[in-house]
User: Which sequence fits this backbone?
DNA sequence: TAGCTATTTAGAATATTTTCTAAATAGCTA
DNA sequence: TAGCTATTTAGAAAATATTCTAAATAGCTA
């Protein structure tokens, strides 16, 4: 946790593509990998980084590992950016 | 332009601190540098990265260079994240 | 114009990231 | 349990990022 890891994870186009894939629901590591022209090992490396950044979490089932988007961290990043942007001082905490 | 550069720029804690400093208004390179324990050359390097990412723009005045936050790119990033997060389908374009 | 002051650029050292191949792990299935 | 299938881990190579010192640029000011 920490924005450094989160933004670092988001900085890579492949990792952003993975997150976009997960928008429509969870996918196994293999299913994710099939969308890219890279070895499974490399996909695993990227998934590890997304996981460390808490942008995804995994669910183990049979001998598959499913990855799912963690929207709460996406929210946190949006809040940080919103605070940086400032100026919406009427957006009151309710 | 492109999210890779933007997120990469945001990934570094010093650069995020610089952006936070700029929340309350523009500052010269020197004023920014005075908040950090690094050489001016290093600050200049980080400012260059923020500038390439369009997160800041510069205004030259006398022999100072002032940096100012570019909130429109912050907005764009928030939109991308908002789309990733999904699920707020009642947030209609007006 | 000579010399300041502010900032950037160049070049080099070190650290970090990304990718691959090969091997390891772990859980099914026959 | 033997051998699959899915995925990760280890180790190494190549690319990129971060920092410094030293030098360059550029605009004031006296």
Assistant:
């Amino acid at each position: 946790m920490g924005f450094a890891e989160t933004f670092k994870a988001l900085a890579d186009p492949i990792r952003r593509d993975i997150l976009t894939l997960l928008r429509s629901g969870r996918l196994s590591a293999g299913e994710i990998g099939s969308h890219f022209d890279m070895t499974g090992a490399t996909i695993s490396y990227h998934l590890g980084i997304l996981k460390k950044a808490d942008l995804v979490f995994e669910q183990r089932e049979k001998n598959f590992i499913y990855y799912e988007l963690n929207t709460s961290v996406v929210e946190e990043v949006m809040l940080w950016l919103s605070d940086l942007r400032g100026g919406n001082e009427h957006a009151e905490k309710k």
User: Anything to note?
Assistant: Residues 3-88 of chain A form a domain with the Arc Repressor Mutant, subunit A fold (CATH 1.10.10.10).
